[in-house]
What we know:
Layout: H1 2-15, E1 18-20, H2 21-27, H3 33-45, E2 49-52, E3 55-58, H4 59-62, H5 70-73, H6 78-88, E4 97-100, E5 119-122, H7 125-132, E6 138-141, E7 145-147, E8 152-154, H8 156-163, E9 169-172, E10 176-178, E11 182-185, H9 188-200, E12 203-207, E13 219-222, E14 229-232, H10 241-246, E15 250-253
Parallel strand pairs: 4-5, 4-9, 5-6, 9-12, 12-14, 14-15
Antiparallel strand pairs: 1-3, 2-3, 7-8, 10-11, 11-13
Amino acid sequence: MYNNRREQIRSMLQTKAYVTFKELSELFPDVSEMTIRRDIEHLEREHVAIRVRGGARSMRFITNQVDDSITSRQQKNVESKEAIVEKAAKYLEPGRSIFLDSGSTLQKIVKYIPNERFSFTTTDPSLALGLCKIGLPMVNLVGGRLDGNNQTVTGIHAMRFLGDINIDIAFLSPSGFSARSGFTVGNYSEGEIKRIVVSKARLVVMLMDESKFDKSLPYTFADAADADIIITNRPLPADMNGIIEKNNITVTIVDDTI
């Protein structure tokens, strides 16, 4: 019976971070791979798994958090974040499709956005509410599973939504940045969302303070070369100079000492 089979797959996903379709086909030789895919789709709707190429990842392991909570991050490097988003707001263009990342940095950008006809998409419910209060901007809030620890929306429905829209300018805030690992985050689902955004955007603007330098978290969502503009508060580490020059990345250093 399919109920018993799905329960066996569910049990596997409680102890394994990833299972392949090949592995499941060998475990259940009497059913087709299409049937197994439907089982995974069922478990995905129950937020047990998320489909990836070649198999499924366990949501139990995906939701493990390495980053600090959003509440903790909101209290850190406040002056630097204010200076960074004030500079970032100058890259906003009315009439463009603009993605604003979730997180403590971009939550501060609202006060610097003029009341004009911008078109924003975000995965951050708190940021979306702030944008709506401005007046004229149109705001799309991505739907999906709400991660309360990060105040961000993730999951397969969020990925599908972003896959269906066009993004002209993307403002992203990584949790770590290094020459070896690129731009990284501590949560797999959040990383997959950012990866989609980077792949679709014409212009990628990375916002980060010096605390992110030479820091590598588990999941890389973009290489250093994927950035078009980096806005930060201190010069980047010396080992980044070659990458920056080779890829013509614009680096803007803001003054956060006021």
